[in-house]
Amino acid sequence: MKIFLNGEAKEVVDSCSVLDLLTEMDIVGQRLAVEVNEEIVSKSRHADYSFGEGDKVEIVHAIGGG
Length: 66
What we know:
Elements: E1 2-5, E2 8-11, H1 18-24, E3 32-36, E4 39-40, E5 56-61
Parallel strand pairs: 1-5
Antiparallel strand pairs: 1-2, 3-4, 3-5
């Protein structure tokens, strides 16, 4: 199945969850926000939220500073 990750096409397995994608990218546990089709997916839903064909996914890393 094809999704669009930060503007680029990416093939993922059917029923791929947000957690599956983050694990594949080796960024589990980092401070980040995940948005699917312009809606934030809360961290508590990462394991249960599965992508659909053509979903637009944005992953943004939180950066601290002052």
